[in-house]
Amino acid sequence: MTREGVGWCYHGFMSVCADCGKVIAEGVASCPECRGTVIPDSGDRRRGEVYRIGEVAGERFRIREVLGTGSSGIVYGAEDEALGQAVALKVYWDRAVEGDADLGRIRREIAAARRAQHENLVTIHDLHFFRGRPALAMEWVRGESLRARIKREGGLPASEAVPIAQSVLSGLACLHGHGVVHRDVKSSNIFLGASGEVKLRDFGLVKGEDRGATLTGTGEAFGTPGYMSPEVIRGKGATPRSDLYATGVVLFEMLTGHLPYEGSSVPEVAGRILNDPPPVELLEKAGVEPWLRRIIVRLMQKDPRDRFGSAEEVIKALRSRSPGMWISRKARVRVAVGGVVLAVCLGLGWAGYRALFPPTAVDVRAEGNVVRGISERGGTAWEREFPTWVMNARVFEEDPEKENRFLVIYGGRGRG
Q: CA triplet 167, 209, 175: central angle to 5 degrees?
């Protein structure tokens, strides 16, 4: 089998301290000047991409802390001084919004996301512009990310992992119903609230579907490689089934404590996603029940058409503990080819058997130079071709204990 190769385009951005704004060398965990929070690969403060703790953005949002960074922007915990409420504020990198087309898409998807109100989705408030770049104000979920819990506790029992997956799928079902593809489902984008709620954030607001980003060429891809589906890696664009693939990865991660495909570099991980089957042995080692393993394997099929058709279908499968009747397209081809080979072999075998052991006929008929044995149902049990014209044929001796009948054939050259 030929393995697909991949390449990756990196951005050479610096790390910056969120407290004092100092540019920090790569690999440093905290600021050497003020011991503040370091934001890795966050860009240049002179370009206005990074705010200090305590600074006011847009004369309205006072920055309280850094919640995280990603391929499309940085997320702050902030106080909306105009409304007196805490919000999560996502400020997009310049490289994430390139021109009016990207901005128009973000506006459309924010409008759709605001209509997609669901208990398992982070609520979108509004879109703002700071220093010429978009910033999204949304609900600030107090608690921890699913990724943080997995890092702390390792694999979770199925009794906890499955309900979390069902909550994520419920949010995705609502999102997909409003025409929005998440594109970046991962454990760090799933928040576990202090009161037990499960919230999916950062939906539909990163590059992917429209721009056809790819890892297989020299282009750049936005998203997290370990969760990206094969079609997204190849540059075919994200669809709802791409989100289902990523949900399968998250479910795998919850149950085992590890991603299904890991490696020392992004190209290595992407290559494994493209070429290697889901590592079922890791699920077996973690004690995952067969029905749940089958659901995860179906979610992580290489061909999107082999996965579940919708988030609702996955929820139903998890509730019924059954992945449903399905067979992958590659397996279908193998079964079809095997069926043809088997049919040919059976046909040849049956022909050989008939030649060696001809069936018993109850009567015979002569037609030209061919004599046919007639079965009980009136069909042809066998036939014999003679070099001379057969005028007549009849049963000479009829003995039910004998397998073969004796025939007398009257031909043009006399009695046979």
A: 25
Supply the angle between the helices 311-320 and 240-256 in degrees, to the nearest 10: 40
Residue 204 pLDDT exceeds 60 = no
- For 342-356, what is each residue's pLDDT tens digit? 777 777 776 666 666
For 410, residues 6+ apart whose C-beta sits below 8 A from its C-beta are: 390, 391, 392, 393, 416
Contact 62, 114 (CB under 8 A): no
Per residue in 88-128, pLDDT tens?
Answer: 998 887 766 777 777 787 788 788 778 888 999 999 898 89
Contact (Cβ atoms closer than 8 angstroms) between residue 305 and residue 327: no
Q: Residue 184 catalytic?
A: yes
CB-based burial label for 336 (10 Å; 0-12, 13-18, 19+)? exposed
CB 3 within 8 A of CB 271: yes
Structure-block tokens of residue 94: 């310049």
Q: Which of 184, 202, 243, 306 is catalytic?
A: 184
What's the pLDDT tens digit per position in 143-189? 899 999 999 999 999 999 999 999 999 999 999 998 889 988 999 89
Residue position matching structure tokens 């996603």: 273
The pTM is what?
0.67
Q: Which two tokens stand for residue 32?
A: 């050497």
